[in-house]
Write a structure and sequence with these properties.
The chain is mainly α and 128 residues long. Helix content is 77%, strand content 0%.
Amino acid sequence: MRLDPEIDKVEVRIMRRRHELTRVTQESGERAMKTLASPGALIGAALLGFLAGGGIAPRHKAGHARSGRRRNDPAARAVQRTGVVGALATGAMWLVRAKFGSPAGLAQYVMSLARRRQATSARHTPRR
């Protein structure tokens, strides 16, 4: 049994549009990832994070102790370092996800580099 030619045309048009939509979606995703992983976007995100995290907040006067601790208190310095390390770790994970998709992707990349390096060194090792 043969379908009506108009139905065939409509089905072909639907199939073309579906494929076009899939292609456009994939291209848009790739462009978005390239844009997000660009140096300008990364610098902008770091700057925005700094500003949102207190870079533009008014400074407290020297006479007021915020938590009752001295300025040279080692515990206060440790807390500040922890905050900086946390911010750096967050940025590093963002970069890893932008470049490799996940930490597992980074691990696979590092292992492939190690395998290549091992294969290269095995080829260039003189035989005795």
